[in-house]
TrEMBL record:
InterPro entries from the UniProt entry: Aminoacid_DH-like_N_sf, Glu/Leu/Phe/Val/Trp_DH, Glu/Leu/Phe/Val/Trp_DH_C, Glu/Leu/Phe/Val/Trp_DH_dimer, Glu/Leu/Phe/Val_DH_AS, Glu/Phe/Leu/Val/Trp_DH_bac/arc, NAD(P)-bd_dom_sf
Protein name: Glu/Leu/Phe/Val dehydrogenase
Annotated positions binding NAD(+): G177, L178, G179, S180, V181, G182
Gene3D superfamilies noted in UniProt: Leucine Dehydrogenase, chain A, domain 1, NAD(P)-binding Rossmann-like Domain
Gene Ontology process terms (BP): amino acid metabolic process
Length: 349
């Protein structure tokens, strides 16, 4: 396969392939842009069907991190890493340490953190061999709920712009994915009075959401097409494409899943259907804001207060897109691009 010719290779600075057969490690690190600072992005572990699928994912995810840091004006660039494997079966301390040693060879150009298939506890293992792993657990061992709270702020902005509302009382929200982010988001939404419809591949997780939040549960194959004011994708990406967009029965989309649009043209398709799209790299930026606060004096309450600016950023995007009659996805990209330089590292060299 061609890397330089890949459709998702867009001004990436560096792509590193990691192979350590003794511990079963096959991984890829992608650094998209470092004009604002070291590339930051989570380490995802997933049983990809092919190496091509893994390459596409890491290229798209790393680019998204550049835009996430830029739109929030944080001192980071965009990077990401993926480990090819089943986290339930293949993840071991030896594999994690081997991944940490590989990241250490980049000498701080890339800082990793937890992501789908990895945890803050895994980052503690990795930090035994490299300092370039972020992510602090709370007293219960869970990460700070910054990502979920940031999405909640995005939902408040969505309610204000699309529905002219200052609250979420009685609004219907369909939540796809009840992992750490999705479940915590449900907690915020329930407290705000929203009516929830939820789905997850794990039956026990859905049962818990029904019991704790009074949520209606539907099959994973049905959640995207549930009738709701807002659809909130919080699982894997590329859920909006030519097949799914015509079947949507929501008025707005706001969720934490990365790269929700199968390609950028699908932002226009949502726009033409009159569905307000809260760009995922904006509303999911809480995790990156959390990392920016790590260090002496770290305070989760301060992190969450800082995440509230996501609401204002989202509103700015919505209003500018409306003035210019542009898809919010396109407007958000242009606004982020005003805050970083493409190819800066290569030109400086």
């Amino acid at each position: 396969m061609s890397i330089f010719g890949a459709v998702d290779f867009m001004e990436h600075e560096q792509v590193v392939f990691v192979n350590e057969p003794s511990v079963g490690l096959k991984a890829i690190v992608a650094i998209h842009n470092t004009s604002r600072g070291p590339a930051f992005g989570g380490c995802r572990m997933h049983p990809y069907a092919s190496e091509e699928e893994a390459v596409r994912d890491v290229l798209r995810l790393s680019r998204g991190m550049t835009y996430k840091a830029a739109i929030t004006r944080l001192p980071y660039g965009g990077g990401k890493s993926v480990i090819i494997g089943d986290p339930a079966r293949d993840k071991t301390p030896e594999l994690l340490r081997a991944m940490g040693r590989a990241v250490a060879t980049l000498q701080g150009r890339y800082i990793m953190a937890d992501d789908v298939g990895t945890t803050v506890r895994d980052m503690e293992v990795i930090r035994t061999v490299t300092p370039y792993a972020a992510g602090l657990p709370d007293a219960s061992g869970e990460p700070c709920p910054a990502t979920a709270y940031g999405v909640f702020q995005g939902l408040l902005a969505t309610a204000a712009h699309r529905f002219g509302r200052s609250d979420l009382e009685g609004m219907s929200v369909a939540v796809q994915g009840l992992g750490s982010v999705g479940f915590r988001l449900c907690r915020y939404l329930h407290a705000a009075g929203a009516a929830l419809t939820v789905s997850d591949v794990r039956e026990d997780r859905m049962a818990e959401a029904a019991a704790r939040f009074g949520a209606r549960t539907v099959a994973a194959s049905e959640i995207l097409f549930a009738e709701a004011d807002v659809l909130s994708p919080n699982a894997l990406g590329a859920v909006f494409d030519d097949a799914t967009i015509p079947r949507l029965r929501c008025k707005a989309v706001c969720g934490a899943a990365n790269n929700q649009l199968a390609d950028e043209g699908h932002g226009l398709a949502l726009h033409r259907r009159g569905i307000l799209y809260a760009p995922d790299f904006v509303v999911s930026a809480g995790g990156l804001i959390d990392v920016a606060h790590e260090g002496p004096g770290y305070d989760p309450a301060t992190v969450l207060a800082d995440c509230e600016r996501i609401r204002g950023i989202a509103l700015d995007i919505f209003q500018r897109a409306e003035r210019e009659n542009q898809p919010t996805s396109r407007t958000a990209l242009r606004m982020a691009e005003e805050n970083f330089t493409v190819g800066a590292a290569r030109r400086a060299a």
